[in-house]
Specification:
The complex is a heterodimer of chains A (about 500) and B (about 100). The longest helix of chain A has 21 residues. In chain A, helix 7 packs antiparallel against helix 16 and helix 10 packs across helix 13. Chain A is an alpha/beta fold and about 500 residues long. In chain A, strand 2, helix 4 and strand 3 form a beta-alpha-beta unit. With about 100 residues, chain B is mainly α. At the A-B interface, helix 10, helix 11, helix 12, helix 13 and helix 14 of A face helix 1 and helix 2 of B.
Chain lengths: ~500, ~100
């Protein structure tokens, strides 16, 4: 791997080049910083770039490699979504409220990736407080889709998805509360994994909806996601919902040789609810083609039904705003973040601070959450939503008794034009129709590229499995990627820049 | 669902967010659309269904009762809008 081509390569290739001293971490990091400098003005994927910190970390990584203490991720650059706290570095959550907030400590997953020797190059743009599906609710302006800058990259981890898609960095972190890793991964043509709830600690993830928030990786391949998950997973006593379980090597099973039918014995469940009306014809056709490929690799398919899943979006838009209204009450202008300049008294300071600090979508969700939790409405909304959440989880448990992986499209359409849905929140929410259920159930889910529309926009395939069955998803995705090349496609703008 | 402007103003007061009359009207229309979506779930039969509060049936673990965090007040207060002698400054609330 030459430094110029570096961010194009999967992590395992970069790792081999680093170990073989064919490239140094300083060279790799420099290449990523150069690509960010040349591509970010057009894409707005990065909010903060830490050139000096990154080069210093790269020098440390090079010393570690020279000393023979390197792991598989040591020396490789990574970007973090700006909702993950990074000690000493601005952490904005895409909000005016935290526009100047420098995090006093780092998130667990940020610490873990740093301990693995990854080089933190900067922070990526996102929908404000992770509330959005297009990255247009960021206070710092929308991110553009590298495949066509007139289109959105998806959200809320749109900056991370665009950064990896344009190969500004080889990998990035994201967070997923209703699809915020998987939907942008689909719309940007890369891989994104939402792990099982509790597998990756939420410590230092600025909370949106605590029972639904998950950190996870965005990368070029399923094998890359496995390497990143190896570093990100683990028990953390500082998150009371973090689960203590024996460490699992997610990368090792992918390396096993299995011959021409590597998916023999794997049963893929096809929910009729994911293949009905509302799914764009080009998306449906790409999923059908992927199914042919998976059958050729030895998998079998079985029809399953998820009758309650049609309620997933309404349930989500009760639970997520309810939790958000509680979590975001901490932004009061007292301990951190924005404070209004002029106010009459304490109450006025709160109201003006929050009116100025939050954008329209965040305010709407806080108001919805305040309503569903308010006196007299709790049973009819919040409790009801938790009951329907149970029905949805029961549906998945039943379906996954008959299959190993539930498969469908990640998003009903490919990327849409900037501005196309900003006027209608409900249309925006319906982008998450296939992704929110995995947040409600806590089951792992991932999106991988499986085709393109005639207009050249990527299409994502969505895979869901039982709790802690990440290896199942990663293995299926990896075998598919060994037989196909959708994940190797790079947007034209990124190729041009790489050739400079 | 019909939301009145008074409803919107009451919610904004509950949420401690100042709202102008023009914003209240805009927000009212958007919230009505959102509640139309949300209300689709209210018809589901859920008699006897145990509410699911969390994605995993976990019991929260208790840690040992000992000091585990160092004093980082100075560091944490560095990001506060207004502090004095280690205290957060707010407008006077008691005359």
């Amino acid at each position: 791997v030459s430094p110029e081509a570096a961010p194009f390569a999967p992590l395992a290739d970069l790792s081999r080049s680093l170990a073989g001293k064919r490239v140094s971490s300083v060279e790799l990091t420099g290449a990523a910083l150069d690509r960010i400098a040349s591509l970010n003005p057009a894409l707005n994927a990065f909010l903060t770039v830490d050139r000096d910190g990154a080069l210093a970390a790269a020098r440390v990584a090079d010393a570690r490699i020279a000393a023979g203490n390197a792991g598989p991720l040591t020396g490789i650059p990574i970007a973090h979504k700006d909702v993950l706290m990074t000690e000493g570095l601005r952490t904005t959550c895409g909000s005016r409220m935290l526009a100047d907030f420098v995090a006093p400590y780092s998130a667990f997953v940020v610490e873990r990736l740093a301990a693995a020797g990854m080089v933190r190059v900067g922070k990526t743009n996102m929908d404000e407080f992770a509330m959005g599906s297009s990255n247009e609710s960021s206070y710092f302006g929308p991110v553009k889709n590298p495949w066509n800058p007139d289109y959105v990259p998806g959200g809320s981890s749109g900056g991370s998805a665009a950064a990896v898609a344009a190969r500004m960095v080889p990998a990035a972190t994201g967070t997923d509360t209703g699809g915020s890793i998987r939907q942008p991964a689909a719309l940007a043509g890369i891989c994104g994994l939402k792990p099982t709830y509790g597998l990756c600690s939420r410590y230092g993830l600025v909370a949106f909806a605590s029972s639904l928030d998950h950190p996870g990786p965005l990368a070029q391949t399923a094998a890359d996601c496995a390497l990143l998950l190896n570093a990100m997973a683990g028990h953390d006593p500082r998150d009371s919902t973090s689960i203590a379980r024996e460490a699992e090597d997610y990368a090792r099973p992918l390396a096993e040789a299995r011959g021409g039918k590597p998916l023999s014995g794997v049963r893929i469940g096809l929910p009729r609810e994911y293949f009905g009306e509302g799914v764009d014809a080009e998306v449906a056709a790409a999923i059908e083609n992927a199914l042919c490929e998976l059958r050729a690799l030895g998998a079998t398919t079985v029809d399953v039904s998820l009758p309650a899943v049609k309620h997933a979006v309404p349930v989500y838009y009760v639970i997520a705003p309810a939790e958000a209204s509680s979590n975001l009450s901490r932004f009061d202008g007292v301990r951190y973040g924005h404070r209004a300049a002029n106010y009459a008294d304490l109450s006025d300071m709160y109201r003006k601070t929050r009116a100025e600090g939050f954008g329209a979508e965040v305010k709407r969700r806080i108001l919805v959450g305040s309503y569903v939790l308010s006196h007299g409405y709790y049973d009819a909304y919040y409790l009801k939503a938790q009951q329907v959440r149970r029905l949805i989880a029961d549906d998945f448990a039943r379906a996954l008794g008959r299959c190993d992986v539930v498969l469908g499209p990640t998003s009903p359409t490919a990327a849409f034009r900037l501005g196309a849905k900003t006027g209608d929140p409900v249309q925006m929410y319906l982008n998450d129709i296939f992704t929110v259920a995995a947040n409600l159930t806590g089951m792992p889910a991932m999106s991988i590229p499986c085709g393109f529309t005639r207009a050249g926009l990527p299409i994502g395939m969505h895979l869901q499995a039982n709790h802690f069955a990440e290896s199942r998803l990663l293995d299926l995705a990896h075998r598919y990627q060994q037989a196909t090349d959708w994940h190797t496609r790079v947007p034209t703008m990124a190729q041009r820049s790489g050739a400079k | 669902m019909a939301l009145s402007l008074d409803d919107v103003r009451r919610l904004a007061q509950l949420a401690r967010i100042e709202i102008t009359p023009a914003e209240a009207e805009e927000v009212r229309g958007k919230l009505e659309g959102i509640f139309e979506l949300i209300n689709q779930m209210r018809a589901v039969e859920t008699e006897g269904i145990v509410p699911m509060a969390h994605a995993q049936e976990v019991t929260l673990s208790l840690r040992e009762d000992r000091v585990s965090e160092p004093d980082r007040r100075a560091q944490y207060q560095r990001v506060a809008p207004a502090v004095h002698d280690g205290l957060y400054l707010v407008p006077k609330v008691i005359e």
